[in-house]
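User: For a benchmark we're assembling, each entry needs the component sequences followed by a predicted structure for the full assembly. Here are entry 17's components. Please fill in the structure.
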Amino acid sequence: MVSPFQLTPEEASALWLSIKVGLWCTVIIAGPGVLMGWLLARTRFTGKALIDGLIHLPLVLPPVVPGYILLLLLGKQGVIGKWLYEVWGITLVFTWKGAVIASALMAFPLMVRAVSLSMSLVEPRLEAAARTLGAGPWRVFLTITLPLAMPGIMTGLILAFARSLGEFGATVTFVGNVAGETRTLPLAIYTYTQIPGADGTALRLVVLSLLLALGALLVSEIAARRVGRLLGR
Amino acid sequence: MLDLDISLTQGSFTLQGSLRLDQPVSGVFGPSGSGKSTLLKVIAGLALPQQGSITLAGEVLFEARKGIHLPPHRRRIGLVFQDSQLFPHLSVRNNLLYGFKLLPAARRYFRLEQILDLLEIGHLLDSRPHHLSGGEKQRVALGRTLLAAPRLLLLDEPLASLDEGLKRQILPFLRRVRDEIRIPMIYVSHAINEILYLTPQLVVIDKGRILGQGAFVEVIRQQSIVNLARSLGLENVLQVEVLRHDPEMGYTVVQYDHHELHLSLSTLPVGANTFISLRAIDVALARQRITDITIQNQVPGIITQLLHTTDRVLVDVDIGAPIQAEVTRKAVQDLRLRVGDGVYCLFKARAWNYLGTG
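Assistant: Structure for entry 17:
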């Protein structure tokens, strides 16, 4: 009899894969997310509404659609995928890297929304004050805008991580359901619910997902409070 | 010396005019929404005019035709905002040093300690901005700007968000900056008292237009400013010297020209120069000197103009300075007032206001 707290190798693999994909997803969208959030909050350019709409599409589309589009673009026969494979030897389909791309695409709008909201709340006169004190635009961004928008950036990152943990549709469409490679927690739960007699395992993974999500929310709450205190709010 | 000739349109608001400021301290005076803050933003480089040019001490900061626009961080023009705009995520120390650290050592004017002493903010160094009172915030904001070694200091209503008591506490610091630091200053306010406390040199601006510029008494009497002066109760303004006080009887004697005026008791030192103002409706006229009356001042003069409006008459009298009385048509008729007539101007001691005393 195995201890109920002992994870089987399959369960452990799904858990660690989920965390790995989630962290990579957060890492790769952090920079572009902050930049895009700033562009949407603080600049005016032609085609802004279009860009805004495109970024937010994954939020409103059935996740299968972005997954299929990824497959078309980044699959081995896809426009970009072919080039990636032939020139760089990079394969994304049926790999965990592909899973990262899929969840990054789905999480990006959440990140951008959180960042642009918090940046639009940064008092422009604080930035103006920094300019008159001799700071160039980049220095103002790094020393004033970015730190003051930090609560929103952190919220965005946590949301992105959580979105990645829950990603199912785009992932399964783009990179399939390969045990040990692309079978993250939601995919594993789905798989076990399809196998007769594996309900117990599915339930254990459901509890695990709950704990992980709760943990992420808790970390975000604590971090937000710390930053809030620092900013005197 | 600042030379400016610009036109800027933002939505339905247009700021247009030319200025030449060559005084150590200039005041910019005008009602709320007149374009004062926009003018400062233009000078600091935070707002971009569509036309014109700005030159500071011979250096072109902006010239629309040649496409020259020196960005704000290269202008070395300090701006203190109405509500301090301290960086909330930095300590007072790091707020103060924000601009200072960006300067090469050779360009720094002050040491931190000098500024802490001057503004008495040393005890606040390790505080966070949100723990400071309004007056402390403003002093830190002023210190932060001074430490960035600006060649021109712009003050945008720095006292507007403070209550009366705090204003009185901060004004002496501004005088100290004026006298000890000697960076040219442009002080913007809708409160004439604050400006006159620091300088008699001012620019008057309203509805985006520069209405006049020069010494207070001359500017305020300019034709273009009459309406604004009237709305502020500044129809009559004199520059006077304090001669003596009588605290027991509760009055102060000042001298104007060769006249002595009795005013309400002031705390100004004997010998001080000050501005006093009086509303036109507070001036009474008499054909001869009147005895047995509580009014303390009866000054003879000659009527220079009678301006009839629908419901009243504005009577200009020369008493060595122009004085305007606002009376009814009936009063003019009863006394048969005509241009060239001699009259006595009657001023209650307590009707005069002291200006610029902080």
